Amino acid sequence: MLSYLGIGLMRFVALWPLRWVRALGFGMGLLLLKLIPQRRRIAQVNVALCFPQLSAQEQQALVRKIFICFTQAWFDRAWLWHAKPEVVLARTKLVGAVEQLHGTEPTLLFGPHFVGLDAAATVISQRVPRRYTTLYAVQKNKVFDAWITKGRQRFAENRLIDRHSGFKPIVSALRQGDPFYLLPDMDFGAEDSFFVPFFGVSTATVPSLSRFARLGRARVIPVLPRLTPEGYEIHILPAWTDFPTADAEADTALMNQRLQGYIETMPEQYFWVHKRFKSRPPGEADVYQRKK
User: Fold this and answer.
1) Of 101, 102, 209, 235, which is the most exposed, with the fewest CB atoms less than 10 Å away?
2) pLDDT of residue 292
3) What is the mean pLDDT of residues 180-190?
């Protein structure tokens, strides 16, 4: 019942002017900052590790902005998934090397975990309608799972592959010409990862971008969503011409290096509430554990 009520609220919020939606996100972001100390602590640790040049006061201000942007983007799903199509068009822009989204050349869309990741998928599928593919983690709540699935398939018959299905469906989709939207910048454990630098910290990073680019003989196109006062700007960057190589570890380090550059242009919009540095190299302590 609570799930249906929550979805009903999002349908109602979809009718609001954008400034009202953003005001709701602003207020709820500040509330969550107070009510979820565990996530606040994670964001504080991540910011301290990645932006040591900032003063304690500046780091605190950045954490505050992170919670606000995260919550605003969450409520933006209301109008992205439920408002009239013309409302979505009016509030969003698709800019950059958009022509690369056409054609049948195998393509990996590198989508870092910025708060507007669902906005990017929605805008691209609305403005460049074709079948896209991505990985999907099935939600335990079936009502919520169905809502997310329907939202992500709003403007196209996007194929959502269970993240535990292995690499064969992904490579098959790439070779069939379906652009694959990949988000490889989370901590998925040390077992299948390389420890490569990210903001100067040795970080467990899966080499999936390099691996799928090689197996699918695909080009890599970065997709950067930017939350703006008017809605969103989705930036399509030119395809990387030096990727992949025969060295998956070097490729993964290069991915992190370029990702860091993207984040530095809008640090408050990255997904810092995730334990990005949870997995540590042998002998290193848990960075999220409070020191006694």
Assistant:
1) 102
2) 63
3) 93
